[in-house]
Structures are given as C-alpha cells and as structure tokens.
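Late entry, iron/sulfur cluster complex.
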Amino acid sequence: MSGIYVHIPFCKQACSYCDFYFVTKSDQKENFVQALIAEIAALEGQVFTEEVVKSVYFGGGTPSLLTTDQLGRIITELERVFTLELDELTIEMNPDNVTPDYLKALKDCGFDRISMGVQSFSEKSLNFMNRAHNRTQALQALEDIVASSFQNYTVDLIYGQPDQTSAELLEDIDQLMVFNPPHISAYALTIEHNTRLAKQVELGRVKPADDDEVADQMDLLARSLVNYGLDRYEVSSFAKAGFQAKHNQIYWDHGNYLGLGPGAHSFWWPKTPVEKEGLMGDDAGFFKGLSSEQAIVAMVQS
Ligand code: SF4
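Prediction complete; structure with ligand written out below:
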C-alpha cells in the first residue's frame, strides 16, 4: 500500500503558532500548479510508480485556496503517472473557503474526505491564533459540509491555549458535537521557534498555559469525545467506527509514501537489493559515494 502527500503551500494569512512552510502571496498559484504537475511528470517510469496508490492527501498550507480546476489538473496528472486505486482522497480546507458550490466541485474532482481546521469557535481564541476565519464562518462551513454529500470529514481543534479555561474548551467541544462529525483531531497548542507566538512569549506578552493544565484539558477532551461516542484511536485523533483516517495508517504501518510539493517528505522501502541499487544507479549520480542507507535517506529527503 502506498500513499501520496501533496503539499500546497498557500495561506491567506499566517496563524501565529504555525511553523509549517507556507506563503501568504497568492500570485504564484498557477505557476506553482504547473511546477507541481511537472514534478509529478518527472516521476513517470520511476520505481515509485510501480506500487498501487491507495490514498492521496492534499495538505498545506491551505489546499482549498486552489480552484477545483487546478486541483483537478493535479489529480489528472497523478492518474496519468501513477496507478491510483484510492480508498481515500482527502483535502484540507479552511472554513472561509467552504461553499456549497466548492464542495460539489471537490466531489466532482473525486475527493471523498475533508479535513477542516476549525481550531476553536471562540472569537477570542481565533483572534489570538490569527486564524483567517471567524466563528460564524466555522459554523456555516460545518452546516454546508453536513448538507453536502461528504459523509467522511474531520475537524481539527486546538486546546491548551494561554488563558483558555476548561469551560471554554468544553464549549468548543459541545458546539462541534452539535454537527456530530465522524472524526476529530485535537492538538495541544505548541510554541514553535520562529513563530509570532514564540516572539510574543519571548517578549513576555503571552504566558504559555501551564503544562499540568494542558494535560488536564487533554484528559477532559478525551473523556468528552469518548462520551460522545468517538473512539480514541490515535493520541490526537478520535473517530466513529469506520471513519479512522486511512492515510495516516500508512505512516503508522511504515508503508511507502511519496511527498510532492515544497514542504513534503517521502519514505520508501526498497523491496529488493536490485531496487535499492536502482535507486542509487547511474541516473542518480547525486547518491553515489553514499552508503545505501545514507542514499535512501537522501533520496526521500530530496
Ligand atoms: S492555515 Fe494552516 S498552514 Fe496556513 S498558517 Fe495557518 S496553520 Fe499554518
């Protein structure tokens, strides 16, 4: 089983906590799509295309900033180069990009799973994290998804924010469960280097939440979601039966996956010594002089 992760690096604005690679300029989107399609085309005939692909995941950044025409062209090129027998085709979305028409067009492209970053329904929290959407947009987006033909979707929440109380976290959970989502991922806010949040902490403008309080919130969240009938099948992920993320399972199983786009990485096990040699053969002069293991690591990082 193999998966493909496609990184789309565009974002409307910078969330204060985010250390992923992203750009907030939007004028290069079409050039990017063409470069990504060229990257996919360059893989034609390589060993990576011999394995059937069971899952493709469009992550970001914010993939929903691309048009469905652009997304469709990327998928068409993936179909041309790889053998896709997909159990899952996921796209990450932000609430301010969700409309009934866009959802329908995504379905027409072949997407069958949405991952939406709500993070919180609290205006205070959304402003603090500098999210691009507000509470009203988050609620409307969930209404639109529930009314659409997407039955398989997941919503991200963030807890452990400075000054966030357990009561506020419970409000977020209860509000989200009004929509009865089949899958939720919830992450503790972390302070990453070189982010606006880290700078705010460094300057003493923000005091991080106490570790014990964050741990208590994690326990509270887990108990609440389990009480709502979701199974905690990963540290941060909860799902109803049959809605566990198939793409992530490839990672946990140490299956092969390819990362495409600027901020993605890959992981690939050569099946045979010949394949291992082939990955480092004359066509890959860059890898010469490295040990097999060094070369494979270099290859998947390149
Ligand atoms: S939308 Fe996602 S990728 Fe973009 S800045 Fe916010 S957290 Fe980072």
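The longest strand covers residues 84-93. Will revisit in the morning.
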